[in-house]
Specification:
Blueprint lengths: L2 H16 L7 H7 L11 E4 L4 H4 L3 H11 L5 E7 L2 E6 L1 H14 L14 E5 L14 H16 L3 E5 L8 H12 L2 H7 L1 H17 L2 H15 L2 H25 L17 H9 L3 E4 L2 E4 L9 E4 L7 H16 L3 E5 L5 H13 L8 E4 L4 E3 L2 E2 L10 H19 L6 H17 L8 E3 L1 H4 L7 H16 L17 H11 L1 H10 L4 H20 L8 H24 L9
Parallel strand pairs: 4-5, 4-9, 9-10, 11-13
Antiparallel strand pairs: 1-3, 2-3, 6-7, 7-8, 11-12
Helix pairs in contact: 1-2, 1-4, 5-19, 5-22, 7-9, 7-10, 8-9, 10-11, 15-16, 18-21, 18-22, 19-21, 20-21, 21-22
The structure holds arginine.
The site of arginine (ARG) has 9 residues, from α13.
């Protein structure tokens, strides 16, 4: 129960008492309740014009009648203004109710059982084998990771899938290059970069000697046919890539339940293609087989090439069936850049045309591009920033700041990692996901702006207060002392945190949580600077302020956790 539920309940009671035959209940009132734009208009407002149709009375009359019957321990008074009923809460009751609710939830404030018995598959990060992890992959990795936690927090069973890009003729070329110019040790030591170098060399040499292309194709055919040597090298390339990437995942604290990628579906596409044929959806076109989508304003989707080869979308079709049959998902989310909008629209439409209702649960969670210090990244122009380098640099910079600000901090390395990585992740999840992001160091690691370090610092500040607050642990708290405007701002943000979590989930938009948590940190800091938390002459008031601090600490920690950012206790 939160304050909104409680107030809604009282209003519904008052409405039924005021109007004979009125069937208004708490749930209906709750969805109508608004938060007024200004404090002087109350803490909640009921727009009564929305009731006037069903109740056949003027909004003002409805508001006045409810106001007359409204009497509850949590409500200070109600005012009728225009068609609104403005509710002013008894501030001490509000404070006590919210703080206790947060503390009783034991770190799970904002969680729910909305997803009980339901499963959501999340396809995120989905890296390509033999390519380096650059900052363009940060968003898919972190939005996916955060959404997984948000769904978990709401009772869903979640399945994190790294749909590896591990199929395509490029792997034949790479094996060809490896056989000609590579050796085991160089690749073992150089990792993905060594493979990239081989690939680049292949293209340079193929300019001079076009027969290399045929050799590359032949090697790919060998992989397809299950040739022992080809498969062995290919599998090893994958292992090397995953080992390299694991370092980044470890830094970020990200993990997956499945690494079933494109090659996993090699033997699972036939039934899908057959079904498309049986349903008359597959039509020949210039030797290839396609699904026509012009009725839906889309170009045809090629499912089989003229040489019989399958494509990216063929594998995604097979993957959709596999996920449906294996996990029985209610939702299947694809966290992939907006450049693939068309691909996913085609994919979902084809499944719909095949008559599979479960495809309604599939959704493309798209996001914008990342640029670096004002410049678009471009592999062709050699302007790339590797994620591992970026994270290491962030940790290094955080370390310098810590050295300067708190030279005596224990475990400085660990905190530097939490702050540096947290700053990058926070920055990535701070704006609406579809907005492009320009990564700038001065904005990422600033301790004062709307940044990860700022929020982490506020959390550490709360922890520091609580370390000194032992003396008030068993004192009965007097919440009449946290009724000032600054405390009220903090309390409202605490009480609305569950709504933020809910909205983040409904819109698949972690940034809602990032921003709400930031606002909470800002409100608490304002409170902290204007009020003394602990005052020996007022133990009961101190106890209330300490409890408020504890609630803030818990919720900031939860907010950060939900976006994949750690919360050190000292900074
Ligand atoms: N590997 C792809 C890329 O980097 C993303 C794969 C997304 N997932 C999917 N099921 N198509 O562009």
């Amino acid at each position: 129960m939160n304050m909104k539920n409680i107030v809604a309940g009282h209003i519904a009671d008052a409405a039924r008492a005021g109007f004979e035959g009125c069937a208004l209940d708490a749930a209906a009132v709750e969805v109508m309740l608004e938060i007024p734009p200004e404090k002087k208009l109350g803490d909640y407002a009921l727009p009564c014009f929305r009731l006037s149709k069903t109740m056949r009375k003027a909004p003002q009359m409805i508001a006045a009648a409810i106001a007359e019957k409204l009497a509850a321990p949590e409500i200070e008074r109600a005012e009728v203004v225009g068609g609104y009923l403005n509710i002013f809460l008894k501030r001490s009751a509000l404070a006590e109710n919210i703080v206790n609710a947060v503390l009783e939830s034991e770190g799970r404030w904002g969680s729910s059982s909305a997803g009980e018995g339901k499963t959501v598959c999340l396809d995120y990060s989905s890296i390509n084998i033999a390519k380096r992890f650059h900052i363009g992959h940060l968003s898919t990795t972190m939005i996916g990771h955060s959404l997984k936690r948000i769904y978990d927090f709401n009772g869903y069973t979640t399945v994190g899938i790294n749909h590896l890009g591990d199929w395509g003729t490029q792997f034949g070329k790479m094996i060809c290059a490896y056989k000609k110019w590579g050796d085991r040790e160089t690749v073992e030591q150089g990792g993905v970069q060594a493979m990239v170098d081989l690939y680049v060399r292949f293209h340079a040499e193929a300019e001079k000697d076009p027969t290399l292309e045929d050799e590359g194709r032949a090697w790919f055919k060998k992989i397809e046919d299950g040739d022992k040597e080809a498969l062995e090298i290919f599998t090893w390339f994958k292992e090397v890539t995953l080992k390299d990437t694991q370092r980044v995942y470890d830094l970020l604290g990200v993990s997956f339940d499945s690494y079933a990628g494109e090659s996993f579906y090699n033997d699972k596409m036939e039934p899908v293609v057959q079904e498309l044929r049986d349903k008359g959806l597959l039509v020949p076109s210039q030797g290839a087989y396609v699904v026509m989508l012009d009725d839906y304003g889309m170009p045809p989707a090629i499912v089989l090439r003229s040489d019989g080869a399958t494509l990216y979308i063929t594998r995604d079709l097979a993957a959709a069936f596999y996920r449906h049959n294996t996990y029985h998902f209610d939702k299947c989310l694809y966290v992939v850049a907006y450049q693939q909008n068309l691909h996913f629209k085609q994919l979902f439409k084809i499944l719909e045309l095949m008559g599979h209702d479960w495809s309604k649960g599939m959704e493309h969670v798209s996001f914008g591009m990342v640029s670096y210090e004002g410049r678009a990244l471009s592999t062709r122009e050699g302007y790339v920033v590797y994620l591992e380098d970026l994270l290491n640099k962030a940790v290094e910079k955080a370390r310098e700041i810590i050295e300067e600000k708190s030279p005596n901090l224990p475990n400085k390395d660990e905190v530097a990692r939490q702050v540096g990585v947290g700053a990058v992740v926070y920055f990535d999840l701070h704006n609406d996901r579809n907005k492009d992001i320009d990564f700038r160091w001065e904005r990422v690691l600033n301790f004062d702006g709307e940044t990860g370090p700022y929020v982490q610092y506020t959390h550490a500040r709360c922890c520091s207060v609580l370390r000194k607050a032992e003396a008030y642990a068993n004192v009965e708290a007097d919440f009449a002392t946290v009724t000032d405007d600054e405390a009220q701002d903090v309390l409202m943000l605490l009480s609305r945190f569950p709504e933020a979590v809910r909205k983040a989930m409904d819109n698949n938009e972690p940034s809602v949580i990032t921003r709400h948590t930031t606002q909470l940190a800002q409100a608490y800091n304002k409170y902290y600077f204007e009020h003394r938390i602990m005052d020996e002459s007022d133990p009961a008031g101190s106890a209330a302020r300490v409890k408020l601090t504890q609630a803030v600490r818990d919720v900031i920690k939860t907010g950060l956790w939900l976006i994949g950012v750690e919360a050190p206790e000292r900074m």
